[in-house]
Write a structure and sequence with these properties.
This protein has 96 residues and is α+β, with helices and mostly antiparallel strands. 36% of the residues lie in helices and 32% in strands. The protein is built from three helices and four strands. Strands 2-3-1-4 form a four-stranded antiparallel beta sheet. It is flat, with a radius of gyration of 13 Å. The protein starts with a strand and ends with a strand.
């Protein structure tokens, strides 16, 4: 069953660190089987929606998404981020 890696950026503290993270994270997550399906600011929000940067990546399974997160390549990306943003990140299973 597919899984979705969803990250929302609650606060960007250092744009340069976020850029360094993105440069490393994108290739690391694609190499781990992830496909970016959405990235950016919302065009529209409803109810209690916030206008925050959101990234959605699909993986073939929850296990694949976890492995991507725990990989050495993604760890390098996280080290580059180094507190440059406050994010809410979650892995959500897809619907069968």
């Amino acid at each position: 069953m597919s899984a979705y890696w969803i990250s929302t950026y609650r606060e960007i503290i250092d744009e340069d660190k976020v850029a360094a993270y993105a440069e490393l994270a994108g290739p690391a997550l694609r190499a781990a089987g992830g496909t970016f399906v959405a990235r950016g600011l919302p065009e529209q929000t409803y109810e209690a929606g916030e206008s925050t940067r959101t990234v959605v990546i699909v993986f073939e399974s929850v296990e694949a998404a976890r492995a991507a997160h725990d990989s050495p390549a993604y760890s390098e990306a996280l080290a580059a981020l180094d507190g440059g943003a406050v994010r809410d990140m979650r892995i959500v299973p897809g619907v069968a």
